[in-house]
Amino acid sequence: MGRLLPATAESIARYLVHHAETLSVNTLRQRLAALAQWHLDQGFPDPTKAPIVRKVFKGIQVLHPAQEKRAKPLQLEQLAAVDQWLEAAIVTAKTNNDRGGQLRYVRNRALLLLGFWRGFRGDELTRLRAEHVEVVPGQGMTCYFPLTKGDRQLKGSTFKAPALSRLCPVDAYLAWMTAAQIREGAVFRSIDRWGHVSDDGLHIDSLVPLLRAILKEAGVVSPELYSGHSLRRGFATWASANGWDVKTLMEYVGWKDVHSAMRYVDSADPFARHRISEMLALKSGTR
Predict the structure, then answer these.
(1) What is the CATH number of the domain that holds 112?
(2) Which structural domain, as residue segments, surrounds residue 59?
(3) Does residue 212 sit in the same domain as residue 234?
């Protein structure tokens, strides 16, 4: 496309044809989504929805079929283990007067807990802004996005996250905002070794390496299998195992069609044996 934006439907179609042999269908789909989001953010019509682009992409799917590689879901027990590790790391960093480390651990805890319980995609976490978040202490928080995937009428979308007795995303969010002294702008930001918080939000391309680094430090096996969708898939798996019907899950996460929801529901445990065991252990531990 010659790196020229805004792009035309014809230039995108040529780009797809040129890279059809070297890039996977999933990679091409991700790049189309990124292009679509850029055009919408800048107020331009979305050229990726043009008939010629759809036709070319469909043809590539037929010629180069590939089994979809899904992100490994982060299970609730793993989330709890990582959260426990982060809490200990925060205390250690504070004891050692390591402000940079302390801030990173506090930020990472808020990112993980909010991302999981809200079923956020990676791009939603990186685009969340402080002025679009409202917190009701002891009850929950509301997150507003002016633009979201699937919001064709550009009305914006609002998502609510609950305050919980454990693994609470609201408490973690407030702890991060207080520690970083963020009043407006991007919620999740980079931090240098001296503890200086950037004015800019995390770049979407940095989120997967960050998530894998967190999981690796916390001792999670095979962190390279996780991606920015692992939190979303983890929540969908947990919700499905605990009786949420597909309609409720779709409304909570923000999916517009049932196929999108079913893609994220884990089916690796068809008899639900492990899920039931996990929930029994969790409930017995809270008595």
Answers:
(1) 1.10.443.10
(2) 9-63
(3) yes
User: Strand 133-136 relative to strand 140-145: parallel, antiparallel, unpaired?
Assistant: antiparallel
pLDDT tens, position by position, for the chain (287 residues)? Answer: 445 788 999 999 999 998 888 888 878 888 898 899 888 888 899 999 999 999 999 998 888 765 556 678 999 999 999 999 999 999 999 999 999 999 999 999 999 999 999 999 888 999 999 999 999 988 999 999 987 665 556 678 899 999 999 999 999 999 999 999 999 999 999 999 899 999 999 998 899 999 999 999 999 999 999 998 899 989 988 988 888 888 888 888 887 777 666 666 645 455 545 555 665 666 555 54
Class of residue 148 by CB neighbours under 10 A (exposed 0-12, middle 13-18, buried 19+): buried
Residues 128 and 15 in one domain: no
Indicate whether 128 and 163 sit together in one domain. Answer: yes
Tell me, yes or no, whether 166 and 197 share the same domain. Answer: yes
The pTM of the full predicted model, rounded to 2 decimals, is 0.70
SS3 (DSSP) at 162: strand
In total, how many domains does the chain have?
A: 2
Measured distance CA(62)–CA(175) in Å, rounded: 49
Report if residue 262 sits inside a domain: yes
Phi, psi of 13 (to 5 degrees): -60, -45
Give the side-chain half-sphere CA count within 13 A for 38. Answer: 13
In a domain, 70, yes or no: no
* Residues β-bridged to residue 136: 140
